[in-house]
């Protein structure tokens, strides 16, 4: 089966981001990006909310690089890569092999090679990178490379798992617009459970918290839901090929390959997202700490006024919107 290891080939273990790291950020996502590392659950985006790119890892800065970005009128012409050699203690907490390196993007570096950084240290301000869409908020991209890999290359990152529970929020798809940007609006969802975990995400019809660009990016995923007996994260062990649905329509299938780490991948089905009956680009989904859950609707060609009522639905499509890289 594709993705399964051959005899004698080691199985990659997922790097587990400790709860104390994730909880320093306003929101996070593993799949809300068109880039291959996110599509395969091998990176996480951490949204600080205050414009400061704080370190999610502890270690010593190995390298700092500046790279050119795709030309976007709303974005900077350059992006930046910070490579950090992780401490053995951080690796042990995350289940990563000693010698693992972290790759951090979208932060203007105020650190240099040789600097020692701890979790929560300011690395520099976040930057509006041309590598993500105009509706995407500033964030810190985090990935990991094994000890024998070149950390400057974009491919070859380790699988990533976020071990924090995310409350699945059920919603009927109707609510008022509470925020408007140049290419998106946020539609208010229901209030969250007061006794629930810190983070919440839109629930599928099956009760799984959803992650990713539905369905403008080819791949999405699910978060770990709270364990029914407590607040611990419980990763959904749905079978490969199991259907994922939203608002009564199948929107994707689970991808769980034998021999691969469980990362909650979903391959989106060919569907369209509609707002008040007209097609929009899609839904930008992530785990959020807000008291009232909101859904970001990507709609560069539609205008909705703040306070206007919007009803979302999903329908099968012969020509679904898919946004590529670049």
Automatic annotation (TrEMBL):
Signal peptide boundaries: none
Pfam family name, one: DUF8155
Annotated DUF8155 domain residues: 17-161, 167-314
Protein name: Peptidase M23 domain-containing protein
